[in-house]
Amino acid sequence: MTVDGDDNLWVANFGPLTVPPRELPINFANGRLSKLAGIDPARRPPGAQTGDPLSPDSGFTVPSAGSPVLLHNGDPLYGPGAPPSLAPMMRHTAAVVDRAGNIWSINNWKPLFAVDAGVDVAANPGGDGIVIFVGLASPPRAPPRAPRHADEHKRR
Q1: Does 86 score more than 60 pLDDT?
Q2: Which of 15, 55, 60, 66 has the fewest CB atoms nearer than 10 Å to its CB?
Q3: Residue 94: per-residue pLDDT
Q4: How many angstroms separate the CA atoms of 54 and 17, rounded?
């Protein structure tokens, strides 16, 4: 979770579990980034309360446009001969807003639930991706500076 300069809370999350056909295990195929209203009423949209969703119902996602997700070597996400994965954004575990308002979200890919549950951890060690949503958030405000003492220069 992270907070932007407009006091909105951004949550990187797995999305709902989906159950594919019986031959495939349950998986987290719908990772998303969600935006929630913050605690400052002056910075919320009119009528919104703390915690109200401000993102689309789907959250902010990255569609594949019909192209399968490929690994760095060009293999399909689950290996040669495996069914294609069309969900490039999965198992988001963290989000950070940078000083320009970009949101960097950790995409811990490869969401085969049976593997993650301990069936074969070596076959699915997790992901190593980052998704950057350029300019989606309000840049964070600088924290207030502590007051300086008039006699600070004398103490040095």
Answers
A1: yes
A2: 66
A3: 87
A4: 22
Model pTM score: 0.69
Cα 70 from chain centre: 20
Length of the chain: 156
| Highest mean pLDDT of the ranges 23-37, 51-65, 94-108 | 94-108
Residue burial 67-78, b: 16+ Cβ < 10 Å; e: rest: eebeeeeeeebb
- φ/ψ of 135, rounded to 5, equals 70, 20
**Tokens standing for 154?**
């004398």
Give the burial class of 4: count Cβ atoms within 10 A of its Cβ; 0-12 exposed, 13-18 middle, 19 or more buried: buried
The DSSP string of the chain is -EE-TTS-EEEEE----B---TTS--B----EEEEE--S-GGGSPTT--TT-B-S-TT-B----TTPPPB-TTS-BTT-TTSPP-------EEEEEE-TTS-EEEEE----BHHHHTTS-GGG-----EEEEETT-SPPPPPPPPPPPPTTHHHH-
